[in-house]
Each structure stands twice: as C-alpha cells, then as structure tokens.
Amino acid sequence: MSVSKIAIIIGSTRPSRISPSIAQWLQTNLQTADLAVDLIDLAKVDLPLLDEAAMPSDGNYTLPHTKKWHDLITGYQGYVLLFPQYNWGYPAPLKNALDCLYSEWRHKPVSMVSYGGHGGFQAALALSLVLRGLKMRWLTNNLEITLKPDELDDNGQFKDAEQALAPYKFDVRQLSAEFTHLLH
C-alpha cells in the first residue's frame, strides 16, 4: 500500500499566533505508516493578494508565486485547514490562499481544525461555504479546539501543548482513519 500525502495548512499569519504548536501536535498525531503529513505555513508562503490577471478557474497562472503555490498544493491528496476564529470569521490569508487556485482543490478531501476561546464554530461555518464553492470533499471529522485561559501563558502560548490538546487526541485519530480510508 502506498503512502498518501496530506498537508496541514496553517491559516494564521499573526506574529503572536498559537497555530504552529497546534499544527505540530496535529502532524504528530495524524501521521501513520499510510499517511504522511506536512506543514504548510501561510506566513512563509507569503502569497500576495489575488494579483493574477486571469480568474483562477481559468488555470492560466502567469506569476511565479502562483505557479509555485499551484505546484505545492497539487503535491497533496488532502488537506487540513488550521485556523483561528477572528470576530466569527477566519483569517484573510487563508481565504486568499484558497482563492488563488481553483481546480487544484476540487474533489480533494479537507478537514477544518478551528480554534479560539469558544472553539471557532462560527469561523468553521463561514469557511464551510467556501469549501463547498470549491467543490472540496468536506470530511466528517472536524475539530473545534477551545483555548482555555489557564492553559496559556502570558504570551498566549500553551504552557503544555500536549496536555492542553490531549482531549482532542481521539478526534485526531478518527480524522487520520478517515483520511486513510478515503485515500487508500
């Protein structure tokens, strides 16, 4: 059996974000012998705001950064979108990254992992409409991670990420199994 590749796309670019530690924890807990999991950090990808002349649905990419983004994304069979809830929405860099491409997303399995003081339900709800528009295969396992103030330090980072995220471990195993079932 071959190994399937999925990517966790870190949707926040805010300097004080907690998402890299969540992403690393997810990667460790999602990865199996049949499932390779990479991290894509939108802060490092640094996509400009929709600067291609043609619509992404045309697939006529002319700018080097869009071609590079296309090449990166097409190397994966599925995605986990990791993002915080900002004022009941999701971060603009994530929307931009999705909107820069079109057919590359079609029919690919996707899971959402939102987080925030209340888990990010509203942000996940808003993003689900975009994923439907892109015709992605929305998985049944999606996580809403509630950040508890007593588990965070003065800089808003986990005191102990493993302990804080432990309640979500079963859900991540279920997500891993769902990806493995769909991709094999």
Notes on the protein architecture:
- This protein is an alpha/beta fold and 184 residues long.
- The chain has one domain: Rossmann fold, CATH 3.40.50.
- Helices cover 36% and strands 19% of the residues.
- It is built from 7 helices and 6 strands; from the N terminus they run βαβααβαβαββαα.
- Strands 1, 2, 3, 4, 5 and 6 form a 6-stranded parallel β-sheet that branches.
- β1, α1 and β2 form a beta-alpha-beta unit.
- The longest helix has 15 residues.
- It is globular.
- The termini are close together.
- It holds the Pfam family FMN_red.
- One of its GO terms (cellular component) is cytosol.
- One of its GO terms (molecular function) is oxidoreductase activity.
- This is NAD(P)H-dependent oxidoreductase.
Query: What structural category arises from helix and sheet content?
Result: alpha/beta
Name of the CATH homologous superfamily: Flavodoxin domain
Instruction: Provide the CATH topology.
Output: Rossmann fold
How far is the first residue's CA from the last residue's CA? 8 Å
**Helix and strand string, N-terminal first?**
EHEHHEHEHEEHH
**Biggest β-sheet description:** 6 strands, parallel
Would you tell me the overall average pLDDT? 97
Strand residues, percent: 15-25%
